[in-house]
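User: Sequence in, structure out. Go.
Assistant: Echoing your sequence, followed by the structure tokens.
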Amino acid sequence: MTDYPLIANHGLIGDLQSAALVATDGSVDWFCAPRFDSPSVFGALLDAANGGRCRVRPTAEVFTGKQMYFPDTAVLVTRFITEAGVGEVVDFMPVAGPAATPGRRLVRMVRCVRGQMDFEIEVAPRFDYGREPHQTRVTEDGAVFEGPRTSMTAHLVREPDDERLGRVRVLDGGDVHVELTLAAGQARGLFIETGVAGPVRSVRVAEVWRLFDETVDFWEEWLGGSTYAGRWRDMVHRSAITLKLMTYAPSGGLVAAPTASLPEQIGGERNWDYRFTWVRDASFSVYSLLGLGFSEEAAALARWLRERMEDQAHPGGNGPLNIMYRIDGSTDLTEEVLDHWEGYRGSRPVHIGNGAAGQLQLDIYGEAMDSFYVASRHGLRATHQGWLRICDLLDWVAENWDQPEEGIWETRGGRQDFTYGRLMNWVALDRGIRLATDNGRPAPLERWRAERDAIYTQIMHRGWSPTRQAFRQHYETDVLDASLLRMSTLGFISPTDPMWTSTLKAMDGELVTDSLVYRYDPEASPDGLRGTEGTFSLCTFAYVAALAESGRLDKARITFEKMLTYANHLGLYSEEIALTGEQIGNFPQAFTHLALIDAALALDRQLDLAPPAQSRRRSREATLAAPGAGDDADAAPAG
């Protein structure tokens, strides 16, 4: 399995309609076109032998690969250091417009910056997850790869006085191999277009530099709209750019991750397709983006949510909202297994589509309503028709909140009365009441208040475990659940309430290992799946926010700072952290970057409000926690 780079050894580029992962060895080994959720063009990340890739690398047997982003942009620079000199490949996708287009552009500018360097370029597409064959046509200016349904053209970047750009040859299977030698200051490379079957043309270096300048200008101008000037600004802004990269501009939808089936446990079966828009993620995004000043993006996501409500104007089945949609708002997410692919480092099965789409997850209504409430406070108010749809949604919640469900973690072990689902239904009704009273909108307030208060009473009675002295995952267990870290930040309970501080203490002892947080213990609360998992990065950031709101600023700050050390070399996070510290799960994950932003906003605000003496204090608990159940890897759920 040495052919698989670490998940963390990748950078992300994109054009707001699709995205690609580029490894530190210069390989584009994940790229779907024309959309995030389209079949793959390059998929070596999930099958090194049969998935396909586009690789640019030195011919030297030994080289060191390093990566950086061009400052404040999504332009990725992969540098190669050899004994003969230093070279680099500059990767970016020129930003597409707001309308959906059938083709994508991927620019790979190859440069020698010191000395002299021999490069080899390999272009090996495998259309439709390797299921669609193609024919290859080669000219001196590049190659065309054409299948029955998919096509791609790779243009060589060259200058008019180049007699020939290295040596171009076609390998078995229709792959193309190019060799070139560059001296310091020279630039050549590839200009790839999907959805295009020629003609092949010679692309001039000046054209590539123009596209580079346009792409850099776009990202610098976009990030210039940020109003955030607090602590950890570089990490917050990198997370914002990452979220923007995962946004599908034609609809405003945000994919949970641009990848599919990267495992939560190496060799395990917890491998899911995240290239879709979850109502939950979209809702959280509204708060995070507004917190940074990106009101246009927040408004687009709010519109996307309202459109989904309008699609389901007549509730039925599992409710007025599905838990997830394709990025264009459609609902066909049929799950299938790619038996012909071995999976990342042998992690089978490889899933595309997502069978959890049909689950009942009641928390999504609270998250959607909380986002509408936050948007309204920032001046993004619902129209009359939008308010009618909100009323339909809340009437459904008032009628249906008291039933078992699958929960936020999409367990496949049967429905339960999850405390977090009840909490978020309380949030849904509470925010609806506030919206109606704040904006003078008509609503059945007496009914909504009665149901909201009934949920509160039920959670306090059945969601509380006298044995654990903590709020529990669901009503039939004493297992703890990190999703409940949001109870205080959502206003359900005071952050200084003894019931809440006791819950935090219980989580410290069971779910927290040093600075990292598990979702729950799958051995104590079976979720219907085999194997184990790592700590959930979004839960760690939620823990930071909960600590900050509870006044434990020293602990919150050191936990946040430790968590930043688990980012990859570019500041990106996957879904989970393994026991070894390795990033696992789909990458990068939107939810984690949303949680990072929220944690930074909460902690920065509380640090500003803290008395100077408290903000300078560094307790022993914060800087070097005494060993205990929460800091003992053997006592934590297996990861």
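User: And one key feature?
Assistant: The longest helix spans residues 419-439.
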